[in-house]
Specification:
This protein is α/β, with parallel strands linked by helices. The protein contains 17 helices and 15 strands. The protein has an 11-stranded mixed sheet, sandwiched between helices.
């Protein structure tokens, strides 16, 4: 038999998702409500709509009998069936979603409410394990793979009553497949193709990038597409360096990238345990705070030692930090050098960084809001390692090794933490799957990909996997440890931590997701909030004449010291309430 072509595979995948969603949503019982529910019948319009509905609004409607969980799930499935062909947001739909909704409705009628997400649909990034849906990481080698155990956070969601309605598209293996010379674009996977941004899902018309990617990038390896389009109430993403903050920024969402260790990583396909974390993506700070409390365990997870890092608030309740006056007296620093204005980089002729006028104006508006709400703005609050004249101590001179350009022998001036950590942690994760593992090692995955190129396994190559697999976990350990220590020094001790302690700051304000990389290396938390829109006008390769690119969403990020999520949520909520800049996408079939 000839391998299925990549185009046919992606078309077939999209049709399968649409058919599954439509079949479940249009089931004869899909719109029915128990007589006592007081909600819509199949012949009348719904009394409650999931579109832009918050989790508290859903909970209130469920408690008041204005809607059932079955109706929430049915409406969500109908939206997937209606818009999935345009957006390609889903890798798998839960075929038991309505049955699970019925069970949650029965429990509610019996007076048993599991937790704050009882009967509410939530989606998971497809590197988070479930035992009733495939977990693929977007890679063909794992197509249809159902793991032998579920992630700790999956169990926490179920215990809180959530209905896991779907698995989202993602950049394949958290974007650690292909680096240079042909880097993989965001939200592309061999299994699912391209996810498309609901704020402009049209294909990129430029000749050099006319490979199916959207004109407006979706950002990061997590997907915020379905949450932005009200396919579900919220979703869980994962981040190693920007993959919650970037898609939240691009899809006008709130994202919480937690301190590494606050949420268990057990049962999540890893990139590197040094920086990996899961976190919530939602349409409001309130929803993200609720989801964060559910994802976090009540006690440390024996399967993830890092979960001893931060203590959860009482009852894992982050909603008590939703203070509209949370900016009064808050000390917020503005890291001008590089993140707002160009900065010199030792050894380079040209300065780097800075914002264009439209984005700078938007950030000026954000700073004005902070001041108006009573915050103490420290400007500038530059990061010491960004200003350092010695290139060996300058953060901007110290990148992450990736792709063929940073293979062994070419990696002296970059950190090997990702390429070393991927081999170490991916192989360790595969071992936990036992005989069920589709491949037995990173080497095995690379060989499988090479054997299935005609099926579309390596559209952009696998240079990141290659440079990871060439690492010797014994012989290269000393180099890895030295690079990890340098990462922590430049990004943390002499970076964010230094400036925050020097100025006694509660948070740093970064434009969009620009602070993701420096915060991720020491595992520090960030909350991003929608701020507005900026022109989608790439400078190096402009759109052709006649293509009217739609504006790109843009957010404001608040980064703090380790375990400071309660304070960051308080600041972000107050900022959100003072601005209320989120605008839902205008969807077309």
């Amino acid at each position: 038999m000839k391998p299925t072509s990549p185009v046919c595979r992606r078309v077939g995948h999209s049709l399968n998702v649409l058919v599954a969603a439509l079949a479940i949503a249009t089931h004869p019982l899909a719109g029915q409500t128990p007589p006592a529910g007081g909600a819509a019948t199949p012949d009348s319009p719904p009394s409650f709509s999931v579109v832009e509905a918050t989790i508290p609004q859903m909970r209130a409607a469920l408690e008041q009998g204005r809607v059932t969980s079955r109706e929430l799930v049915s409406q969500s499935l109908q939206r997937i069936a209606t818009y999935e062909e345009t957006l390609n947001a889903v890798l798998a739909v839960n075929p038991r979603a309505l049955a699970e909704a019925d069970a949650r409705d029965r429990e509610r009628r019996e007076g048993r409410v599991r937790g704050p997400l009882h009967g509410i649909p939530i989606a998971l990034k497809d590197n988070i394990q479930t035992t009733d849906l495939p977990t693929t990481g977007g890679t063909l080698a794992f197509e249809g793979f159902v793991p032998p155990y579920e992630a700790t956070l999956t169990r926490n969601l179920r215990e809180a009553g959530a209905i896991i309605i779907a698995k989202t598209v993602m950049t394949e293996l958290a974007n650690w497949i292909a680096g240079s010379p042909t880097p993989m674009p965001t939200n592309y996977s061999a299994l699912g193709g391209y996810g498309r941004n609901p704020y402009d899902p049209r294909r990129d018309p430029r000749e050099a990038t006319a490979d199916g990617r959207p004109a407006l990038a979706t950002g990061g390896s997590s997907s915020g597409i379905g949450t932005a389009a009200s396919f579900w109430a919220a979703n869980v993403g994962t981040e190693t360096s920007g993959s919650i903050l970037s898609p939240a920024n691009q899809c006008m969402l709130v994202g919480i990238k937690p301190t590494v260790g606050r949420i268990s990583r057990h049962g999540i396909i890893p990139l590197t345990a040094d920086q990996d974390t899961a976190g919530p993506m939602a349409r409001t700070v309130t929803d993200a705070a609720i989801l964060l409390g559910v994802l976090e365990g009540a006690a440390p997870d024996p399967a993830d030692a890092a979960t001893r890092t931060c203590a959860p608030p009482p009852g894992r309740d982050y909603t008590k930090f939703l203070n509209p006056n949370g900016l009064k007296g808050a000390r917020i620093g503005i890291p001008r050098a590089y993140f707002y204005s160009e900065a010199s980089v030792p050894g380079r002729e040209r300065a780097s960084g800075g914002l264009n006028k439209e984005t700078a104006d938007l950030m000026d508006e954000a700073i004005a809001v902070l001041k108006a709400q009573g915050a103490v703005v420290v400007d500038p609050a530059d990061i010491p390692s960004v200003l350092e004249a010695d290139p060996s101590k300058n953060f901007l001179s110290w990148s992450l090794c990736s792709g063929a350009d940073n293979a062994k022998g070419k990696d002296a001036a970059c950190s090997v933490v990702f390429k070393y950590g991927m081999k170490r942690d991916f192989n360790a994760w595969l071992a936990t799957l036992g005989e069920a593992a589709p491949v037995k090692s990173l080497t095995g995955l690379r060989l499988w990909n090479l054997e299935h190129t005609r099926a579309g396994s390596l559209r952009y190559g696998q240079s990141n996997l290659d440079v990871s697999d060439e690492m010797d976990l014994v012989a290269d350990r000393r180099r890895y440890e030295a690079d990890r220590a340098k990462d922590l020094a430049l990004a943390g001790t002499n970076g964010i931590e230094a400036v925050m302690k020097a100025h006694k700051l509660d948070a740093l304000l970064f434009p969009g997701g620009s602070g993701a990389s420096i915060a991720a290396r020491p595992g520090l938390p960030t909350v991003i909030v929608p701020l507005g829109s900026v022109p989608n006008a790439p400078q190096s390769s402009p759109f052709p004449s006649g293509f009217d690119a739609r504006p790109a969403p843009y957010g404001a990020s608040f980064t703090g010291l380790g375990c400071s999520e309660p304070r960051l949520i308080e600041i972000a909520y107050a900022f959100e309430q003072a601005t209320k800049k989120r605008v839902p996408p205008r969807l077309e079939k």
